Amino acid sequence: MIVADILKNKGSSVTMVRPDETALDLSERLRAERIGAAIVSADGHAVDGIISERDLAYGLAAHASRLPTVPVASLMTKVVVFCSPDDPINDVMGVMTQKRIRHLPVKDGDDLVGLISIGDVLKLRLSEMKLEADVLLDYVRVQR
Amino acid sequence: MVMTVANILKVKGRIYKSVKPTETIREFAKHLKDERIGAMIVTTDGKALDGIISERDIALGLAEHGDRLPNMKVSQLMTKRVEVCSPQDSIEEVMDMMTHRRIRHLPVQDEGELVGIVTIGDVVKAHLVEAHLTTTSRLTLARSA
């Protein structure tokens, strides 16, 4: 199983915010779209950064009641780790646990083609495990 | 060998970070940042599980409460109906629970006593180890056959 298998179900649309949008704007987007992270891009193509629920939570510690008006640019993570559609799921799981990150944008060459979360990865592994179990059961039945 | 929640706790320890329901969201956010974690158990006496509160509650709470958020109490934002798991639960059961309920933190209770917390990161890590062990034992079996 590879990253492309996740995108097949989830689609390749990525939620984007501009760096000058506020933390409040971002919070509203996350809530409306039921997601945990968004890509930050000024022009809608180049990735300037990634911003997640965690950045908002930690941002509250620093900015308190000023947080709603703080621009996304000053809260985002600028050094972004990417994966590719061909990456095996196990590799992606390794990257997420080692770097303690929960969202990985997917790049195919220069194009951003998706954003996967640790929840997506877990869901796919679970369905894969159920499939393996079914195959084993079938095998046992055929042997009898 | 099936890996369980107990195996995770053996590695990370039977510890969990907690916050009092009367603390403010600002204080809670500071705890998260200092501890570099994403959620905390809410408890008054350090034993009873009053609720759970996570970074998601802050991220989404901001849209609803705006600049009032930092002065609100943990008790106003926490999830009160907490899903829990037990040390005997398998990694697969916990994976299933987290996926279907879209949650990333599960307190662990052993006969009513709070003994730890497992995160989606812990579960993925344990699953990687388990998958590796399974492959290794299958190879050993295949070689000995």
From TrEMBL, chain A:
Q: Which UniProt keywords apply?
A: CBS domain, Kinase, Transferase
Superkingdom of origin: Bacteria
Domain CBS, first and last residues per copy: 76-131
Under InterPro entries, the record lists: CBS_dom, CBS_dom_sf, CBSX3_CBS_dom, Diverse_CBS-Domain
| Annotated Gene3D superfamilies | CBS-domain
In terms of Pfam families, this protein maps to: CBS
Signal sequence annotation: none
Q: Which residues form a coiled coil?
A: none
Q: Does the keyword Ribonucleoprotein apply?
A: no
Q: Name one GO molecular function term.
A: kinase activity
Which PANTHER family does UniProt cross-reference here? CBS DOMAIN-CONTAINING PROTEIN, CBS DOMAIN-CONTAINING PROTEIN CBSX3, MITOCHONDRIAL
How is this protein named in the record? Histidine kinase
Q: Which organism is it from?
A: Methyloceanibacter methanicus
